[in-house]
């Protein structure tokens, strides 16, 4: 669920299976108001919702591949 005050593209389903660094570049290019943050699959993350952040769940941090649809939050 995206917040009503968030702007720009909110999700990137087309990046599933993509290399993490390529995903980060794509996300930040397509929505300049967010920063992509890598998180390794199975690790915990903060649960606060932020319009300026996209979690990029990967197999091995920034060197892995995207395993969940990146979304603003």
UniProtKB/TrEMBL annotation:
<dbReference type="GO" id="GO:0009611">
    <property type="term" value="P:response to wounding"/>
</dbReference>
<comment type="similarity">
    <text>Belongs to the protease inhibitor I13 (potato type I serine protease inhibitor) family.</text>
</comment>
<dbReference type="Pfam" id="PF00280">
    <property type="entry name" value="potato_inhibit"/>
</dbReference>
<keyword id="KW-0646">Protease inhibitor</keyword>
<dbReference type="InterPro" id="IPR036354">
    <property type="entry name" value="Prot_inh_pot1_sf"/>
</dbReference>
<dbReference type="GO" id="GO:0004867">
    <property type="term" value="F:serine-type endopeptidase inhibitor activity"/>
</dbReference>
<keyword id="KW-0722">Serine protease inhibitor</keyword>
<protein>
    <recommendedName>
        <fullName>Proteinase inhibitor</fullName>
    </recommendedName>
</protein>
<dbReference type="InterPro" id="IPR000864">
    <property type="entry name" value="Prot_inh_pot1"/>
</dbReference>
